[in-house]
Amino acid sequence: MGVLLLIISAITFLIFYALPSTDPAQLRAGRSGSPELIASIRHNLGLDKPIYVQYYRYVKGIVLHFDFGFSYQTDAPVRQQIVDRLPATISLTVGAVILWLTLAFPVGIVSAVKRRSLVDRAAMGGALLAISAPVYWLGLVALYLFSNDIGQFKIFDGAGTYVPISQNVGTWFSSLLLPWMVLAASFAAFYARLLRSSLTEVLHEDYIRTARAKGLSERTVILRHGVRAAILPLVTVLGLDIGILLGGAILTESVFNIPGIGRLAYDAIKASDYATIQGTVLFGAFFIIVANLIVDIAYAVVDPRVRY
Amino acid sequence: MTADRQTPLIEVRDLVKHFPIRSGFLDRGKGGVVHAVDGVSFDVMQGETLGLVGESGCGKSTTARLITRLLDPTSGSIRFDGRDIAQLSRKELKPLRRDMQMIFQDPYSSLNPRKTVGSIISEPFLIHGMEKDDAKRRKLVEELMDQVGLNPEHYNRRPHEFSGGQRQRIGVARAIALKPKVVVADEPVSALDVSIQAQILNLLRELQRDLGLTIIFIAHDLSVVRHMCDRIAVMYLGKIVELADADALYGHPRHPYTGALLSSVPVPDPVLARERKQTVLGGDVPSPANPPKACRFHTRCPKAVDGTCDVDEPQLEVKEGGNIAACHFPLADAEVAAAVPTSEV
Amino acid sequence: MTGEPLLSVEDLAVRFDTEDGVVHAVDGISYTVDRGQVLGLVGESGSGKSVSSMSLMGLTAGRRTTIEGRVMFEGRDLLTLPGSEVRAIRGGAISMIFQDPLSSLHPFYTIGRQLIEGVRAHQDGVSKKAARERAIEMLGLVGIPDPRGRVDAYPHEFSGGMRQRVMIAMALVNEPKLLIADEPTTALDVTVQAQILALIKRLNEELDMAVILITHDLGVVAEIADEVAVMYAGRIVEQAKPEALFEAPEHPYTWGLLRSIPRLDTPRDQELVPVAGRPPSLINRPSGCHFHTRCPYVREAHRRIDPPLEPVALGQEDHVVRCLLPHETRLELWRSLESGADAAAAGRAAGTEVTEIKA
């Protein structure tokens, strides 16, 4: 895991430091910065050192002090920035995951059981639409239609209304409703389709026939015997998706102006704030790797054949 | 070709194949090995059909794949036509492949569904750079199809248009295309319906007679093996426990395992089924990853004697009636007569 | 055996509507099973032997499946019973075991849990603990060593033979009166097959449990069946006690099966005679006798007339056959075939014409 993170950090480091489109020092000095000022900034930031020295310092900082350096833009420690933004991202992710799973399971199960029926066709058609709709487009449409400020039907809180859960639970909840729905839409659709195909396959297994032959009710056969086996592929995808989202749902956070890690990364990219970009990338990678580990463990919990 | 059945074509000596057990990442390294084939020696005579029988995990299929060098042996030697082929490289093996062909169990999965039957049967010629002339090759393939009982007009059909039995005929045609010396048939009829089985078995016998083929015939069905083979080696957990001519093996098996196998075979004769005393073995075949010590059969053997069979490994030696068996307490004629439907004692 | 049979199947037909047309998987079969009787259903793939018995329990139901006929079990027609009552019988009075015990057991649940589930689905108010005791008792009955220690193991931790024992234990938890065993030993090694057959026979005798044994293996049937039905193209073509069926079979297809298998109790060099041709399509079935496309003794009329299943001769009501050849001709043909004659010679001996069938 450490090795993997090291490789990822090296690659991002190379991309952002060795091949910069804009010199960070110049950015910092502003439009009218004199060459001397730029040089001194370069020196202060350590940008005048050879790249391997820069990289060594960076990694040493992380390993020894869990220090990701400072933002070029605001001088704030990158670590602090990320920690500050984490609750918003977690709020968005967890809520969306719960929402899309509660949607995907019933739809996927009904579609699989009533395959080729009208319900199934309608659900899968809708799912295809939801998957195809880009999340930022969906977000803007949702805002345009349903937000309290600019919406045609003023139902939900609009963009930029997010408050931390510690401040006001009610506002926190209502401000996140729309982002949750927008983010969950395509995931719910994708998971419903995945569950449908997985369950369809499982329902042809011999052990489902055995369960029926035992005289169990159809409900027990499908839920306890079918779904239990069919969730295996979903576990893998869910783990990765959570990891990715914790690393920052850039588009959703941007559209709804939620101060999460995605938003942080988006702002940092706009400002060529490489230290912050680097930090968010590493964090994202970290979450994905952790999610992978959790997936492996979850696999063993779900499928006893994997245990040893 | 003279099929005198006296000259060995293949001599297998102390053949061993161990497969490492894949273990989890936590206990890497200490994983053991599966003793798939554990010191097997036998000859295959020119023009004969040698049967390899045994239950799952006995190593019969692994042995076949070692002889045809689809697998690399861990140790031991395989002399084919006087030359040791056990350690040859892939490249050195290529000419050998012409002389040794395999027929597989599953005629559904061993044929490429996208190719026409004609091109499947032509493949061996192309691989070995023979019969480069298209028209001539096509004629040869059509002759082959006719020989195995396929309609040559179906040259351009694909495998899915054929029934299971016909697909196995395609497999046979491909195997005999280059006029090999040896054909290794690994469970060639066990995926087929009973009425179709006979067609393929008859075809194999016919081809053997016409082409002077040497056949290594692997099957778990003892009735089929008896019908097809001149000599038979019975395997159990990676070792040969008994080797004899078909008449001797079925007439008076000496190894208790052979006896139990023959006794277990259901016979389509309700009167005989009721009268004979079946030897039903207890338990299952132990894991080849951790085979029992000494005689590997002692854990299930009705005749096992503590202190002998579990400490002293019996060697293959000639027993009464000429059977070669590895057993301290071989079956006596009376025991055979009571339990074995084919007994001739 | 007195009174009503335990199970009486009357004119059972099962059709599947597919894109290629209607598949007549089972085409009007009738048979009865008495209490404690073992009925062997023999046939090759596509003969309808599995479909017919799965249909008894409504396991082939689907939107594209049509099931007709009557299946009387203890005075009730299983095909018209409401779903909940059929479920009460499934796994209760009638239970099933299948060919591949590994894929037939749920891989994610312990065998104990799978057995307990079966108990509690049929016996109201049984505590989990009592159900577990029942599960352990059944595992012991079918010969699983150390059942108390093994009850919490997963299916993959058992060997093939032990898994089939677990399946049988699961089928026994509610004291079924009928066990349907669909190729129960086909996936097993021959020594293990002998164990499982012996176990089924023992349970049949000790528990007075009737068995429908579905198999392609004539040897397996001869070992334990009290009555044998041979199926071809969705129908029963011959049915008799095993002694009669193996001693004096009367249907050319039965002859074909018997002569195409190598067997241990005949001379080693006995020639195998395959059944010529291939099984017919169940969508466009042959006219007349469905076997006429593969029968060497076919006559012109056989292509038009569909023979009924009727006694082979007067006074032999328990041996029925679906064949248009005269009884004496059939006897004569089999006598010649059994003594090693080929179809042509047998035909000459029996004075009937012989047609060569192309493969």
Secondary structure layout:
The complex is a heterotrimer of chains A (308), B (345) and C (359).
Chain A: H1 2-18, H2 24-29, H3 35-45, H4 51-65, H5 78-113, H6 118-132, H7 135-146, H8 169-202, H9 206-213, H10 218-230, H11 232-246, H12 250-255, H13 261-270, H14 274-302
Helix pairs in contact in A: 1-14, 5-6, 5-8, 5-14, 6-8, 7-8, 8-10, 9-10, 11-14, 13-14
Chain B: E1 8-20, E2 33-45, E3 49-53, H1 60-67, E4 75-80, E5 83-84, H2 90-99, E6 100-103, H3 117-127, H4 134-147, H5 164-176, E7 182-186, H6 194-211, E8 214-219, H7 222-228, E9 231-236, E10 239-245, H8 246-251, H9 256-264, H10 270-275, E11 317-318, E12 324-325, H11 333-339
Parallel strand pairs in B: 3-8, 3-9, 6-7, 7-8
Antiparallel strand pairs in B: 1-2, 1-4, 4-5, 9-10, 10-12, 11-12
Chain C: E1 7-18, E2 21-33, E3 38-42, H1 49-56, E4 65-73, E5 76-77, H2 83-89, E6 94-97, H3 101-104, H4 111-122, H5 128-141, H6 147-150, H7 160-172, E7 178-182, H8 190-207, E8 210-215, H9 218-224, E9 227-232, E10 235-240, H10 242-247, H11 252-260, E11 310-311, E12 320-321, H12 327-338, H13 343-350
Parallel strand pairs in C: 3-8, 3-9, 6-7, 7-8
Antiparallel strand pairs in C: 1-2, 1-4, 4-5, 9-10, 10-12, 11-12
Give a quick summary of the entry.
The complex is a heterotrimer of chains A (308), B (345) and C (359). Chain A is an all-alpha fold.
**Low-confidence sequence ranges of chain C:** none
Structural class of chain A: mainly alpha
Largest interface: B-C, 47 and 47 residues
What is the percentage of strand-forming residues of chain C?
15-25%
- Kindly give the count of domains of chain C: 3
Number of strands of chain C: 12
Rounded to the nearest angstrom, the radius of gyration of chain C is 22 Å
**CATH homolog superfamily of the largest domain in chain C:** P-loop containing nucleotide triphosphate hydrolases
Structural class of chain C: alpha/beta
The ordered H/E elements of chain C are EEEHEEHEHHHHHEHEHEEHHEEHH
CATH level-4 homologous superfamily of the largest domain in chain A = MetI-like
- Our count of helices of chain C gives 13
Shape by Cα distribution of chain C:
globular
**CATH third-level topology of the largest domain in chain A:** MetI-like fold
Number of helices of chain A: 14
Radius of gyration of chain A: 24 Å
Organism (chain A): Paraconexibacter antarcticus
Keywords (chain A): Cell membrane, Membrane, Transmembrane, Transmembrane helix, Transport
Protein name (chain A): ABC transporter permease
Membrane topology (chain A): Multi-pass membrane protein
